[in-house]
Amino acid sequence: MTAAAELPDLRLYTVPEVAEILHVTEVWVIRQLRARKLPGRKVSRQWFLTRGDIEAAIESMARPAIAPKPDPAGLSRGSRRALNRRMAR
Question: Which of 12, 29, 34, 45 lies at a 20 to 30 A Cα distance from 57?
Fold first, then answer.
């Protein structure tokens, strides 16, 4: 086995690179890092993230798609709201 095969991925990504990977703005990434919602490390005045940090960010942002429950009467949300307002009078 070579020495390179034994080493973990040590590449550090900067905020612009992470923003491009996640398809978000740099401002969003910095806000999430400051709020500690994204894992990362600040060295001097610059933030860095590892590949594992980026994968953790993707996992934390992922949420299952939940379809809205259909109205039993077949009404849209706006129609249901209007009907409820009329009935409350």
Answer: 45
pLDDT in tens, 75-88: 888 998 998 998 88
> Which two structure tokens, joined as six digits, stand for 49?
């993230």
User: Which residues in the chain come in under a pLDDT of 70?
Assistant: 1-8
DSSP 3-state helix, strand, coil percentages of the chain (rounded to 5)? 50, 10, 40
Query: What is the signed CA dihedral for 50, 54, 57, 63, rounded to 10 degrees?
Result: -150
Torsion sign across C-alpha atoms 73, 77, 82, 85 = positive
**How many Cβ atoms from other residues are within 10 Å of residue 51's Cβ?**
14
